[in-house]
Design brief:
Distance between the termini: 28 Å
Pfam families: BURP (PF03181)
Number of domains: 1
Helix content: 10-25%
Strand content: 25-35%
Order of helices and strands: HEEEEEHHEHEEEEEEEHEE
Radius of gyration: 19 Å
Organism: Triticum aestivum
InterPro entries: BURP, BURP_dom
Protein name: BURP domain-containing protein
Shape: globular
Keywords: Signal
Largest sheet: 6 strands, antiparallel
Number of strands: 15
Length: about 290
């Protein structure tokens, strides 16, 4: 369970996801934690990297900060439920990007930590900057997860640099001939001040799912994994004051939270073990199986 927590709340929501000016920034969750357990040795980091240590082995969340409305108890999802004011499911975007490619005809460097300097040069990212540290963290994490093996039956995972790679991984992880993507879509020119769940707006999505979370990198990189005891729902949301605004949101629900840190339940006023869900904002993807083998 703690592996799922570090994946969802550290990688997906802390490390990157939200893009406002072409650069990755922190998004929905701010979680700090300390690795524990016999296999928690962190590989040496070069001091110039400025990389925070990311680890698979028994991380224990120590602090949680969730954006309004993103994380919620499953029992609080019903017709007419009002989300907190300011809940954001989309990502603000401004014209232009801070990172530019240095040559129009150059192929990007390999997605590998050993190519970090070339990657920073290619995307015109200043060494030692916050964006450089985030890129280095993504490369180190994906390199370590690949080295540990992404085909473990109990927790298959993959850092995908193309949507096709994500789809093929999801299909294999789900035991299906193919996989279909589900994404949150924000309707209208902007997001409303408050979302409300529309009448008949909650629909369960059958079967297992593979969530994919964007990582901080100047090109698209998705961390995909197949958690256990997890389902998904589609939620139709409308603006409380302006029904022309709204969203079709995808949420992932964890059915067994008995191993979660106590702060989640204190934050949500919930009970240990009860289902907890979180919306998947734009740029996140949930894959469902197509034809089963």
């Amino acid at each position: 369970m703690m592996t799922i927590l570090i994946v969802l709340f550290v990688l997906g929501f802390v490390a990157g996801a939200q893009q406002t000016d072409g650069n990755p920034h922190s998004a929905a969750y701010d979680v700090t934690w300390s690795p524990r357990g016999p296999s928690s040795t962190i590989p040496p980091l070069h001091p110039s990297d400025g990389v925070f240590p990311t680890q698979w082995c028994n991380p224990r969340p120590q602090h949680l900060k969730a954006d309004k409305g993103i994380l919620f108890l499953r029992r609080n999802l019903f017709d007419g439920a009002v989300l907190p004011a300011g809940t954001k499911l989309g990502h603000a975007r401004r014209a232009g990007t801070a990172s530019t490619v240095t040559g129009t005809n150059l192929a990007p460097p390999p997605f590998d930590y050993g190519s970090l300097r070339n990657i920073l040069t290619y995307y015109n990212i200043a060494p030692g900057s916050e964006q450089a540290r985030q890129v280095a963290s993504t490369l180190r994490f994906c390199g370590r997860s690949e080295a540990r093996g992404g085909d473990q039956p109990e927790k298959p995972h993959l850092c995908a640099t193309t949507e096709r790679a994500a789809m093929e991984f999801a299909a294999a992880a789900l035991g299906a001939a193919t996989a279909e993507p589900l994404r949150t879509v924000v309707h209208g020119r902007e997001e409303p001040h408050r979302y409300v769940v529309a009448p008949g707006g909650v629909a369960s999505i059958a079967g297992a799912v593979v969530p994919c979370h964007p990582l901080p990198y100047p090109a698209d990189v998705l961390y995909c994994h197949r958690p256990s005891n997890v389902g998904a729902v589609r939620v139709e949301l409308v603006g409380q004051d302006d029904p022309t605004l709204g969203a079709t949101a995808i949420a992932v629900c964890h059915e067994d939270t008995s191993g979660w840190d106590a702060e989640y339940f204190a934050t949500l006023n919930g009970s240990r073990g009860e289902p907890i869900c979180h919306y998947m904002p734009e740029k996140y993807v949930v894959w469902v199986g197509g034809e089963i083998h």
